[in-house]
Amino acid sequence: MGNEVSSTLPEDWATVDMVNRFTFCPRLFHLMYVEGRWEDNCYTHEGKAVHRRVDRIDHLLPETDDATEEPAEPEGDPPPEIARSVSLADDELGFMGKLDLVSTDPEGGEAVPVETKRGRVPNIPNRAYPPERVQLMAQGLLLRRHGYRSDHGYIYFAGSRTRVRIDFDEELERQTLDVIASVREGRAKTVMPPPLEDSPKCWGCSLCGICLPDETIELRTSGNNDSSGPDPRRLYPARDRATPFYIQEQGARVGKSGKRITVTKQHETIGEARLIDISQIVLFGNVQISAQALHLLMEEGKPVVHFSTGAWFHGISHGTGVENAYNRSAQYAAAADPAKCSRFTVPLVRAKVSNQRALILRNGSGDNRNRCVSALAAHIKTLDPDDSRIHGPDYLRGWEGQAAAHYFAAFSSMLKTGELPDFDFKLRNRRPPKDPVNALLSFTYALLVKECLVTLWSEGLDPWWGLHHRPRHGRPALALDFMEPFRPIIADSVVITAINTGMIKPSNFETNSNGCAMKPAAKKALLRAWEQRLDQLHTHPEFGYRCSWRTILRIQARLLSRWLRGDIPSVPWPVVR
Fold it and tell me: Do both 120 and 213 map to the same domain?
């Protein structure tokens, strides 16, 4: 903690913090310092609080030979000099770091580093884990390079208020030098190290939701007919604490007050939210946002999504995001490879049609429903998932279109049109939608595109360069690819629920010869249904644990990036039963 990489750090140098992370887990080191990934959790927040005092000001070490005159004879031993947050570097080692605290005796030439940790003293023989021991030894090496004698240090465990002495013996020094060399070499590698297998280290790691250790191992071994391994653990929260903040009040203005986002209209506050509770800001129509609020959101990695009043997607404002090009490079290479595009598209569209069939089977009724279920089942069998080489892009788009014709022909069987004749659905249409059901479908599809675009962007992928949909100016092709399996089970499901439960009423629409538009009350009700669906827990069909649909979207985006990079052999798209 506190020894973060500077933008001016040479590419082949290591830091004290890198040494600690690499010793703990090489994959964690890669994610943090090669991929540039980070997420906070309760443990990292606690660690930052512990280090707040030592990071408050940078100190310099006293010179070991700065005495120019004979000092007066002291009465007793002189007190040690204390320096906090000390930055040191050594060109020969290619190594630097910031030391929490150093106790020095300039006259005797001795320096003792003290590293602060948030937890309690572990009940193990050395009373300190290897990453902490190596980290402290690395600090001792830097002190030695600057002329001090350093043969031991201390780890202060804040949880038990105890200092543990670590002796810098030859074995620990050799191990530390080996780690420094490995770190310097590892900074140039773009291939991610393998994950730890069923390791207790993963519990509490803030990056486990990005690393996906158990999921990666499950997918790597799924084709080996070996089911003896442990089931994947869900090592991250089932639901996100932060959620989107929607603003559709026309004439409103979004600003900030400290770490809060405020919404005002005519100088009156009509809404506010803590920044920590917001995952993104979604603006509809004539809503302004101040430069100060926009800058704060960019700094915190929270995008601002812009829609027209009628939910046409305009664009997205965001900060730098994931600051590496490895995922995008792999994405562009895959998009230029027809065989890999086919291996991506075949399971994708097959999962979409399977989910359409499952939704009709669950919610439909009557002869239309039965004919559709049978037709989609037969249609799915015509697409061989094990031989994607024979399926070109035009064939797959045509196959997908035929399935959509069967599906939407029976869509009304899932609606209570007998009780609500105004919601009678005949044909899917758009731009603009001609009836209330099509208006609802277009709105939820726009929300799903937005959700997928933000999710893909957060993984460092290019939402505008697709593998199934052809790239076209202004069209987020990869987001359209990614959303396909989720159209029926998220977007269509929200529309069906909103109509059948009475959340949306016929009076919530305006219809004329030019089309059908939703009134503000309908949009607010549909947004509530949308967020309820994304927050709903679902058993992941591949990994068996329960998490929200929003979390599943994030998992799928990370799995897609891992497949593009060659970390896993395939992407398992969720198919409901």
Answer: no
